[in-house]
Amino acid sequence: MTGKLYVARSTAIAARSLGDETMVMSATDSTLFTLNEVATVIWKAADGLTPLEEIVANKICMEYDVAPEAAMKDAEDLVAKLAQHGLLLLSEQPIPRAKVVAA
Question: Could you give the CA distance from residue 48 to residue 91 in angstroms, rounded to a whole number?
């Protein structure tokens, strides 16, 4: 992926944290997702203003023993999948706060 990628939680979801995991349901098709501990870190940090690479570097790589390149690839795969289901918004520009749901 080239350039910065910004991620934000969609407003068309329902989410609940359960320990280190997060359950997310799409309001459009009622699909339910269980995010593991690392995916939950990305989910909570998806504020629309912080680039994904910063989330990976400052949250994932600092807390977990993972190489930055591997963590970034996994994060890009995750956010792309969640965006396909309408759970995340992706943009090459910061996403205005009006479109972001609180954690």
Answer: 8
Compute φ and ψ for 33, nearest 5 degrees: -125, 140
* Residue 43, pLDDT score: 97
What does the block give as tokens for 83? 């965006």
Instruction: Please name the amino acid found at residue 13.
Output: I
How far is C-alpha 13 from the geometric centre of its chain's CA atoms?
A: 13
Mean pLDDT of 39-49: 97
Pull the structure tokens for residue 17: 């944290």
State the Cα angle at 59 between 53 and 62, rounded to 5°: 105
CA angle 73, 38, 21 (to 5 degrees): 140
Sign of the alpha-carbon dihedral angle for 91, 96, 98, 103: positive
Mean pLDDT score, 11-33: 92
Amino acid (1-letter code) at residue 7: V
**Is the domain defined by 11-88 classed in CATH 3.40.50?**
no
